[in-house]
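A further point concerns the way the authors explain their paired sequence and structure data. Each protein is reduced to its one-letter sequence and a matching series of backbone shape codes. An entry of this sort, consisting of the sequence and the corresponding backbone structure tokens, reads as follows:
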Amino acid sequence: MLTTPVVRVLKTQLDDAEIHYCTKKQYAGILEANPYIDKLHFLEDNLDDLIDQLKLENFDFVVDLHNNLRTRIIKSKLSKPNKAFPKLNWEKWLIVNLKINKMPNVHIVDRYMEAVAPLEVKKDMLGLDYFIPEKDEVEDEWLPKSHRNNFVAFAIGGQHETKKLTLERMIELCDKINKPIVLLGGKEDIENGEKIEAFFSRDNESADMAASLETLGKKATIYNACGKYSLNQSASILKRASYVFSHDTGLMHIAAALKKEVYSIWGNTIPEFGMYPYQTKFTILENKGLKCRPCSKIGFDKCPKGHFKCTNNIIFDFWLP
């Protein structure tokens, strides 16, 4: 998602450019409908097989937007002019381990543009791209009547537990939103989605609530869509939403590409890494007052200190008209 502006400027600003994109097979669905890409190459099981395929293309220039050991091997084997973006691993190490912030105030998308500087293309200010195939556009009848207009999408998933709200805090957030809400996520998020939906569908007498949830208004109307839609279909739901709430996930960046207003929730990682919503209206929800944050540039399955204060102490300070 974050590399799509680079692809677009290469295709639109270079005369007769043929743009190939190489990534892992699992990301094919994000790119297959992108009109700025002429050919896709996928890493499946064997890096040498992929390199053999790439050699046949006889590229003029290689743009490295990953800058890891694997891409360095590919560049070495192709022996073509190339440039990589600055990954800033040292700066990230400093802020994670010593809490010394030397990170530039530059979004990662704009750092990606440094890798195409030799080709004399410029940032076009059009933001991210996400193209939804017509077959994946969600129709009205695919959603409950209560969630076809003026609803909020909440992407409840996340790759690591320390980047997500706890279930109890997700329920608090839904209560604060107090509008029809579509919960989005993968199959791994179905159980949490069911619990949130069940909480708001039961009356106060029968609900099994934690003490901290007893005073909630319970007026939110929840539709649990987790695991029910493909990524493209979930993107179509985001496009229909009035607002989007999301952890630091791919769906957050898809919402940014669709120019939605995003409420971005951050746990143990920080927006200063440069991966906040790009060129769309957004609000950051985070706990900035922690000496232990960030504890990682990616995330963990559990809080290293055991308190989860980075998400448990976020104040949900917003108002939706």
Q: What stands out?
A: The longest strand covers residues 20-24. Residues 141-312 form a domain with the Rossmann fold fold (CATH 3.40.50.2000).
